Amino acid sequence: MRGGRALLRVYRGFPLAQTCPRTVSPAEGARLMIHLASSVDAIRGASPRIPAPCLTSRLELRPFCEDDIERIATLLADREVTLFIGGTKPFAAAADSVLYMRDAFAGRGWGTLAVVQRSNNACIGYCGVRPLINTPYVELAFAFERTSWNCGYATEAAKASLDLAFRHLPVDSVVATVYPDNRASIRVLTKAGMYLHGSIFGVWPRSSALLYRLDRTTWRTFVPSLTRSSPFAAGRVAARRTDRVYSTKLR
Ligand SMILES: CC(C)(COP(=O)(O)OP(=O)(O)OC[C@H]1O[C@@H](n2cnc3c(N)ncnc32)[C@H](O)[C@@H]1OP(=O)(O)O)[C@@H](O)C(=O)NCCC(=O)NCCS
Q1: Of 60, 127, 133, 210, which sits 20 to 30 A from 101 (CA to CA)?
Q2: How is 53-91 classified by DSSP, letter by letter?
Q3: Residues flanking ligand 1, CB < 6 Å
């Protein structure tokens, strides 16, 4: 029962039912969330781990370490880079972010990773999947230093992160929130196979954003060769378990 109240609170404070074109009741909204959800609770129950480092053709995605603080602090001090991600951060806050990402990945087994250029070992940004705060969703997040933009790095890292998520986490979908004027990010999301799903409200730092999504079935079609080795690719077992968790909590 306590879980039920928690879920409804999440729903009220974060009306994802707004992604639906018509008005819905709280119960119906909760059902929509169940239908949509990649439940972070269900993942916690399953305790999966994303294996890292992960290599792509030009990049290495690996857990953060203290040596990355300098580069990420520079990235987070750049007005243009942080325009859509909450504004610049002072060095100490950037250092906290790096250590938080490092510890979150180590503790949870999945999260945002440092993106490193394999050619020179330079950390050029971050990318990965993480819980979307105050929701049951798993979101894809990324940011790269300006000197690396428009070389396809974000797309390469985003695709790898989505593959890792669907191969190693019992999620039915991964979402991304993006502001409509962040055209480069929208382009990256669509190149990685995500599609516009609706709007989402209550997201920091602005009050609304677009919600992009990639569901497991579409991902399986998008990258059929990769899905064969996924422990979660064969069916909707994990998704059904997620539904049951949330139905139980609602009663
Ligand atoms: C968004 C971001 C990660 C993209 O990184 P990137 O490595 O340059 O991305 P890619 O090179 O893989 O792809 C960028 C695409 O956007 C396009 N693009 C760039 N600027 C654009 C603009 N102003 N309008 C439309 N398209 C644009 C590029 O042409 C490219 O598409 P193409 O391959 O079809 O030519 C990077 O700009 C960034 O770090 N931004 C700041 C942080 C941020 O906004 N993060 C996302 C929060 S939702």
Answers
A1: 210
A2: -EE-SSEEEE---GGGHHHHHHHHT-TTTTTTTTS---H
A3: 81, 84-85, 142-144, 148-155, 178, 182-185, 187-188
